[in-house]
Amino acid sequence: MLRVLNFAHGTFYMLGAYTTYQFVQWVGGGPGLFWLAALGGALAVAALGGLVERLLFRHLYGKEELYQLLFTYALVLILSDAAKMLWGTQQKSVSRPPELSGAFTLFGATIPSYNLLIILLGPAIALGFWLTLQRTRVGRFIRAAALDRETLGALGVDVDALYTWIFMLASFLGGLGGALISPMRAITPGMDTEIIVEAFVVVVIGGLGSFWGTFFGALIYGQVLSFGILFFPRFSIFAVFALMAAVLMVRPWGLLGRPLQ
Amino acid sequence: MMTRLGRAPWPLLVVALALLVPAVGSRFYTFLANDVLIWALFATSLNLLVGYTGLVSFGHAAYFGIGAYTTGILMKKLAVPFVLAFPAAGIFAGLAALVFGFFCVRLTRIYFAMLTLAFAQIVWAICFKWNEVTGGEQGMPEIPYPALDWMDRLPWVGDLRTSDHFYLLTVLLVALCLWALRRIVGSPFGRILTTIRENPERAEFIGVNVRRYELIAFVVAGAFAGLAGGLFGIFNRGVFPDFAYWTKSSEVLIMTLLGGMGTFYGPPLGALALILLNQQIVSYTEYWPFVLGTILVVLLFVFPGGLAGAAGIVSRRLARALRA
Amino acid sequence: MLEVHNVRKAFDGFQAVAGVTLGVARGQIAAIIGPNGAGKTTFFNLVTGHLRPDAGTVVLNGRDITGLAPHDVCRLGMGRSFQRTNIFPKLTVFENVQAAFISHRGRGLSFFARVEGLYRDETYAVLESVGLGDKAGEVSGFLSHGNQKQLELGIALASEPDLLLLDEPTAGMSATETRETIRLIERITRERGLTLLFTEHDMEVVFSIAQRISVLHQGRLIAEGTPSEVRNDPEVRRVYLGERRR
């Protein structure tokens, strides 16, 4: 959105999972408490994101993308090691919330109800986010900020604060992703580097700064990966990156994005 | 005094010093010095792009990896002698850079970085999965050392270990490559590259075909990265897919930045500093990435010019203090 | 020398240049004037290949250069300066001009020659003629605005053009600086036998040196002729002086 490439997004995602784990440890796994923990985890990550933006990242806006890119990479290194220090290298896991520990049977396949909820929740959050962007005042500001920082400032908007909020929101969403995924997979220190490149692929395919593009990109990514596995089991990752390269070559701004200038 | 120091034949002295390492230092130091030299070449090749042409490649490890696999496959599977397998690393990496670069230079800034990253990931994915040729996930261990029997007959050098012989060869080859790069940077071609870094729009209007020059720089940088990779595979006693992984690309970028982009001797210095630091810190703590990240943040905020930039500031202050 | 025929360019439906036809004869000093947003810079960008016209042709020395890339146009003998100062800020003054020589004389692909002394005399000659002879070793980004403008002119001259296009060569200068710069440009044009096409907002400047003036307004050519013809053109007076049509 802000035309900032953020390697650290994957790390925020990982931290979301860890903080959720931590909150679950504190509050226990009673009914409803998981959701509280997940929200708490995401909020903690958002706070961290805001702090990082306020103290450090904002000094890099005027500089080259290289510096921004490397800074977010430095964050990856620092934060994932910090996570290692705090939580150790052992795998952690969070049990599914008790109210959703059952499973459904759909078309002969058994789907844990938590996974089903996530499948539904993903698009719901996306839709909610989109509506916020489209319909509210804040959303309009955010979209404007992505286009032209100076003009917005001239209109009397506190751009600095706005950027902090956007950064926090993005961190919140990243953290929430990690929080929600935590009952489904093991939480390990390496989970961030795995997802960073995936997230990049998704965003690039969909279009930098394009909202539905990203969503669409995620769908394509999933499809290519799973069909790739079906037909050429060994070259599915290859196919994904080839797709990313192809998109960049033909439409660098992504399938649904708009060209910048 | 400063000028006399500046006029000393530093490069030759450094080469001589480097050649003495196996005789003076332990096996460990020779190993370390070998590592530094190869990374110095790798970082310098990236500097040609980032520091001189202003192209931020986030996938430079691709060419390093291709070079490593080229030399490795040729020497291990096809028993090709080193004299052919080594240049082949540069040629194959350069060819790959020509193909990938053709598409990359059409894009600018962020998109350029992303596409170089995407291509590097493709290279990595191929190395990772193509078991028959690359050994897949397991990589390709036990790349043979080049035949260096002739060194046995040399005085002083003859009694050294094979790994030391390879080290001496590395010193000479890296010195040769760095000399070539130094000439390129100081050539009319190098000057044109700096105009592109400074202002590509204006460069077009002095008649520079910006894309073509960028592509040539990309190929040259890729070829030298490939040569570094070719040496590294042998040095490392094996070639593995993570040579081409994006974390390697960022490591070399950090070295370049640490040393100082756009200054010729900065990146080798960065390679030296980073590797030595790593060596020191790893013995105290397992949290090397944490330290690296912190260094990077300090660099970005306090010394964007890297070590070379910082040294420049210090020496200017000193000179002013001496004059006063 | 330069013939521009009916070029058009639109951005998102806005006609920035709406069919302009214009010729500059060899050795002439020609100016394009017009209020802000009249399309002067866009017109320049179309002529120099920076933008590709939607329609129309650009002919230089009898050769159709429409849609050629800027570096090709430059090689065919067109030099250009920019409205916003456009130099290579971290290079020295000498290196700025030297680079232009290297590029123009096709030495850009020599990989192993030493660059230091290359085209030294030529470079100093150009620096002298634009009045920067004593500043050769300075980092160009630290020069004063006026000096940077002079340097831009120097870079353009180093491409050894027949036709020089200057986009507001005196933009942002004080009255004295403006006068000096204009004198400089006039002298260089004469000495080198160049053809000059420039845009300018300062009317005094334009009327003092231009032999032929074209007036752009809202992307269209509304008048063309000698300074006195243009000065007395009712349409021009209306646009510039806000005189109402009677």
Would you mind describing this structure in some detail?
The complex is a heterotrimer of chains A (261), B (324) and C (246). Chain A is 69% helix and 3% strand. Chain A is mainly alpha-helical. Chain A folds into two domains: 9-189, no CATH class; 190-261, no CATH class. The mean pLDDT of chain A is 67. Chain B contains 16 helices and two strands. In chain B, helix 3 (27-53) packs across helix 14, helix 4 (61-76) runs antiparallel to helix 5 and helix 5 packs across helix 6 (109-129). In chain C, the strands form two sheets. A six-stranded mixed beta sheet of chain C has the order 6-7-8-3-9-10, with helices on both faces. Chain C has a four-stranded antiparallel beta sheet with strand order 2-1-4-5, covered by helices on one side. In chain C, strand 1 (2-11) and strand 2 form a beta hairpin. In chain C, helix 3 (93-104) packs across helix 4, helix 3 (93-104) runs parallel beside helix 5 (145-158) and helix 4 (120-129) crosses helix 5. The mean pLDDT of chain C is 83. The chains are: A mainly alpha (261), B mainly alpha (324), C alpha/beta (246).
Strand order, largest beta sheet of chain B:
1-2
Chain-averaged pLDDT of chain B: 84
Number of helices of chain B: 16
Task: Spell out the helices and strands of chain A N to C.
Answer: HHHEEHHHHHHH
Indicate the percent of residues in helices of chain A: 55-70%
Largest interface: A-B, 43 and 40 residues
Q: How many distinct helices of chain A?
A: 10
- What's the pLDDT, averaged over the residues of chain A? 67
Distance from first to last alpha carbon of chain A: 15 Å
Q: What composes the largest sheet of chain A? A: 2 strands, antiparallel
Element-level helix/strand string of chain B? HHHHHHHEHHHHHEHHHH
- What is the beta-strand fraction of chain B? under 5%
Name the helicity range of chain B.
over 70%
Structurally, the number of domains of chain B stands at: 1
Oligomer: heterotrimer
Please summarize the sheet with the most strands of chain B: 2 strands, antiparallel
Structural class category of chain B? mainly alpha
